[in-house]
Structures are given as structure tokens and as C-alpha cells.
Amino acid sequence: MTLIAAFVSSWFLLVSSVAPAQPQAPSPDAILVRVDLNAISGTKVILSEMVIHSRRDTRSVKAKSWIQGADKAFTEYLDPPREKGTKMLKLGDQLWMYSPSTDRTISISGHMLRQSVMGSDLSYEDMMEDRKLRDAYEAKVIDEESLLERPCWVLELVAKSDDVSYYSRKVWVDKDRYVLLREDRFAKSGKLLKTLEVKSVVRVRDHWIPNVLVFRDVLKQGNGTEFRVESVEFDVAIPDYVFTKASLRK
Amino acid sequence: MIRFLLKGILRDRARSLFPLLTVTLGVFLTVGFYCYLKGAIDAIIESNANFQTGHLKVTTRAYLKESDQLPNDAALMGIEPLLERLRKEFPGTAWVARIRFGGLLDVPDEKGETRTQGPVVGTAADLFSPGSREPERLDLAKGLVRGRLPQKPGEILVSDELAGKLGLEPGAKATLLSTSMNGAMGMANFIVAGTVRFGFQALDRLGLIVDLADAQSALDMADAAGEVLGFLEGTPYKQETVDVMVAAFNKRYKNEADEFVPVMVTLRDQNALGSILDAYDSATGVILAIFIGAMSLVLWNAGLIGNLKRFGEIGVRLAIGESHGHVYRTMIAESLLVGVLGTFAGTAIGLALSYYLQVHGIDISSLVTNFAILFPTILHSRVTPFAFVVGFVPGLLATFLGAVIAGRGIYKRRTSQLFKELET
User: Rounded CA gap, A189 and B139, in Å?
Assistant: First the structure.
């Protein structure tokens, strides 16, 4: 769940508890800068559960992730037994998966990145996203709405170049906490591909984090994937060897 | 009378040789095309049945709807009870579970790191159960190029072409990466027991054969399978037979809305084979019609030329009192005799060539790229009992029609002017 950790990282919009509400609407770029700034913390260790509501049944996958910044993440799956011991390592734009049943470390690349992570609605590509929104998209505020009883700016993001997974996005940003509360991701044709809804946001120490999210691949049959953060620790000392390929086989 | 006409035909080659050659050639082509088409369509039916469709297939409604994507997340569950039930309800049919899947074959280097990867299309069948006829259906022994057939769990066969691309030798290790029934990544290590040539371009490029139990383990499909195939035993594929079975099986699920209930379909309902079979029936009819039409025109023309050549003979016959009708009828009888002789000759040559092609086949691999169905790269003609008689339709009908049309000129001759015509 290296990838999931990276994904969550992008959703951890870490905001100081004393951050005041903005009296005036900042520019779209300023909003994205705040979002990007808050999305990347130093280090964190997350214990999480993915509840996958597939077309046929519901199953859950538990994992522990060690994350450093936006481009280093290591995840070990804990449950179910079939997946236990499976590990993933993300270093920049590279991704490896280790499977204990085969004792093989496989590089995930090319079209494999579009595959579902553990059968969820998230793809490896979703998890690999670590570019700052401000760098990848042009933004404009198109509306203001309320979500989870929180006032939000609604931003429309359009890709600056073609090397992004989604050509455009519509995001709902909490005006006070700079947390993304909802996101719709679109193809260049305008077709809706994926949606993400934050169900709850909690404060951990000085950070506001979305701890229950529902990710839905619109093209896939099923009822989405619920992502629950069971615990999160910030600024944990993570040894360097964790983010090496050798650690996958340990 | 017939002996008299026959003597005339044999002794006067000028009036019979051209029609005889025409009929022989036409019948030869008809028989040859018929046998070739029959061989092609039988090969398509059997190869598709054996590798993908069965004569009958049971799967879930959801799987059937997206079957081109091999959606194993919609696979049948509880396979053993289902097989038991099918064997009990339809005892004249062999029922077997199969899993088809796409994925990657990852070949490690000496350190266990990925050396190379290639896409595969896998077929999982029961290779090891005592009495299993699956290796025979998949023609594995015949197609084996290098190595040996799998003998124990954990061994696979890969297409010789794919093995060449990936640098795989028999005995090499490879890891299969595919999508499990839950949609997660399924990984499993295998030993390449041997390489095979399937004889179908799609499979020869990407094919992989694995034991069913190994695939169930790798894809997290315990007691599940994407498809159950049914093969009619001891009888050729007959649409009426399988339609009855399909109706009986599907009746009990008619009112259920669940997309995961089993559904039975026939070979015709899959891979666009229905339209191909229909096209074959139409093609046979069209070919016969074309040969009858073309040969009739040629024979009409030959009859007209013959009548010109025999202008004097016909005149004398009419002059000495033979009626127009009698002359007309004997001309038709004569042409029918030519038709019979030509048909025998054409059928004999056509059958001889077809038999040769039945044994040796024609390699058409360069013509069958990117086919949606399994299309054999070597086609064999098929000599059937019908092939012995199919040539009689164009052979006799065309000569008859040709003589009927050309012979009408006989009625245009005026008895009163015969001597005048004969003097000139």
C-alpha cells in the first residue's frame, strides 16, 4: 500500500489549527499553493484499511505505510492472509511490488500502472501522483458551495500538459482548512472517470486530515472503495533503509 | 437411344469436347470449393469449440456480457456442484471448467530481477486429472515444439513464438502477473515445461497453457472458473440439439434478475460464429448458383455454336420427317449425357485434389492476421459424402439449361425452306 500512502499523502492537507479563515477569496493559484504546501509533510506512518465494495462482495485490506515527503513511500499489507507480506515501494516515479508467495520483486510500469490496486477503485497511477497541483494544472474558481457543512471553493483545474493522468479536475476546497473535500476527475473528452468524496475530517495534533474517503472508479462496476485511516503518526524517524528495494524482501 | 447418343458424343468430338471440358471444369471447381469451404468451416468450428467456445458454454450473465474482456471477477462460483449437475442433466456431453485470462509473463534474471516481460493470453484447463481429455482437445502433444507436456502442478506451456521473444527455454522459471478474481494483482511462479505451436495466430503470439488448479490458486479463484464448456460426444455439432439443451438449462433462471446466475449459450452465440456459419451456408449456395449460371451461359453459347456446326444435320433430320420436338429432346438428352460424363470427370478430379488438400492443407497464415475468432493458419479441405454428389447440381442443371436455351433455334427452322437452306 505504498501507493495508497502516497495517495493519502496528497490528501493530507495539513493545516495549522490556528490558521485563520481567509477574509477574502484568494486567487485560484494561491489556493492551490496552500493545498500543495499542506499536502506534503515531513514523515508519517499510517495504519489504514481499504474497504472495497466490488460488484460481487465487500472485502477489506489493511496496510501500514511509511511516508517521507511526496516521493518516498513504503507499504506493507497486513490483512487478508492472502495479501499479508505483500510490500510496495515508491521512489519518485518508480514503483516496485514484492510478493512473498513468489519471492519476486516486480517493477510496476507501463500499462500495469492502470491496474487496480488490490481490486480497489484506485489504480497504481492514482497512487503514483505526486506532482503539485499548482505545477500540473491551471485553476479557476467557478463556484462556492458547502460540503460536510463546510464552506468550499469549487475550482476547475485544466492540465498544463498531456503528461498527467487526468486532463481536468473539479475540486472542492475547504475555505478554512484547505482540505479537498471532493474531487471529480475527467478525461480530455470530458468524460467523468473517477470521483473522490471525503466523508470525515479529523484533527491530529496540528493537522486536519481526511480520515474516511470514498474513491469511485466511474467506469468500474461496484460501489466504490472506502479508505479509512485508523491511525497516523507525524514526524516519525524513518530509517533510510526502509526506502530501499532490499527492504521489500525483509 | 441413349447408347446411340453416347456413340455420337464419343465419336464426334467436335460437338462434345468443348461442352464436356466446360462441365468438367465447372464441376471440378464446384467440388473443390465445396470441400475447401467445408474443411475451413469445420476447422473454425472445432478449433473455436476446443479452445474457446465449446459446443456449449455455461458462464454468468455478467461474464457473458463482457466476455471479450475475460472478466474473471464475474466468474462462476461453486464449479464442482455445477459440473456435477450438468453431467447429470446432460449426460451425452463432456463438461469441463476453463479459465481464460490476460496478463504478463515476467522472466527473471539470475538475481531475481525482471529481465524481460511479455503479454500473454492464458488458457487454464484440467491437464492432470486422470482421464482428462483436455490435453487432447487443445492438441498439445501434436503442437509440442520443444520440451515436454506439463506433468505436475506448477508447470506451463507457452507458445513457441512467445518463448522465442522472451528467451525462454524449457525448464526456465517465469512469473505470471494477472488480475485475480478480486481485481487485485495475482502473481505465481511457474516452470516452462515446453513450447507449443497452436496453429492459430492469436494464440501463437501470446498463448500460455496452465493447469486449472494452478490458475485457480494464482487468480484467487478457489472452486471458481470463468467458463464451463460442453462438448457433444460422439455426434457432430448440430444447432437443433444444442438449442434444446440451452432452452432446458436457461428456463430455470428466466425470472432471476441476478447478473451472476449461470447462463448457457451455444457455439453460434459466441465470437460472431453464428454469422460466420450463416455466411458459410450462403457462400455454398452462392458458389453453386454462380457455377450453374456461368456454366449455363457458356453451354448456351457452346450449344449455339454446336447448332451452327450441326445446321445441316438438324436440317436433314427435320427433312426426313423427324419432328422438331424429337430433335429438341434428343439434343437435350445428348447434353445431359455430356453433363453426366463431365460431372463424373469433374467430380473425380475435384475429389482427388480435395483429398490431397485434406491430407496436406494450405498454409494461409499470411492472410489471417488480427482475426476476432480463432482461425486456423493451415486449412485442410474436407471430403464428405455430399461432395460426391454436389457437382451433379451444376453439372446437369447447367447442361440442361444450356441445351434448352440453345435448342430453341430448332423450332425456328421451317420445313418448307429446308431444301433451299441445304442447297446453299
Answer: 46
How far apart are the C-alpha atoms of A23 and A33, rounded to whole Å? 17
pLDDT at site B90:
94
Pairs across A and B, CB distance < 8 A: 56
pLDDT in tens, B80-137: 999 999 999 999 899 999 999 999 999 998 888 889 989 999 999 999 999 999 999 9
Mean per-residue pLDDT over chain B, rounded: 85
A242: which 3 cell numbers? 526502509
Contacts 24+ apart (CB under 8 A), A100-105: A101/B187, A101/B188, A102/B175, A102/B187, A102/B188, A102/B189, A103/A249, A103/B112, A103/B189, A104/B106, A104/B108, A104/B112, A104/B175, A104/B187, A104/B189, A105/A245, A105/A248, A105/A249, A105/B112, A105/B113
Domains contained in chain A, number: 1
Of B280, B268, B281, B270, nearest to B242 (Cα)?
B268
Question: Residues of B with CB below 8 A from A87's CB?
Answer: none
pLDDT per position as a tens digit, A182-215: 999 999 999 999 999 999 998 887 778 889 999 9
Residue A90 grid cell: 515508491
Amino acid present at A12: F
* Domain coverage including residue A64: 2-249
Domain harbouring A59, CATH code: 2.50.20.10
Alpha-carbon span B222 to A54, nearest angstrom = 18
Spatial CB neighbours of B31, under 8 Å, sequence gap ≥ 6? B346, B347, B350, B351, B354, B387, B390, B391
Report the distance separating Cα B173 and Cα B113, nearest Å: 12
Residue A123 bridge partners (DSSP): A116
| pLDDT over threshold 80, residue B302 | no
Q: Judge: B175–A97 Cβ closer than 8 Å, yes or no.
A: no
Of A127, A212, A129, A155, give the one whose Cα is nearest residue A34. A155
Nearest to B175 among A52, A104, A119 (CB): A104
C-alpha triplet A92, A96, A99: angle, nearest 5°: 155
Is-contact B337 B9, C-beta < 8 A?
yes
Nearest CA in chain A to B220: A82
Could you tell me which residues come within 8 angstroms of residue B35 by beta carbon, excluding any fewer than 6 positions away? B350, B351, B354, B357, B358, B381, B382, B383, B384, B387
Are A55 and B74 in contact (CB < 8 Å)? yes
Confidence of residue A13 (pLDDT cuts 50, 70, 90): very low
Residue partners of B135: CB distance under 8 A and separation at least 6: B125, B127, B141, B149
B171 phi, psi to nearest 5 deg? 100, -10
What pTM value is reported for the model? 0.76
Q: Which three cell numbers stand for residue A28?
A: 485560484
Nearest CB among A54, A97, A107 relative to B182 is that of: A54
ipTM of the prediction: 0.79
pLDDT at A37: 72
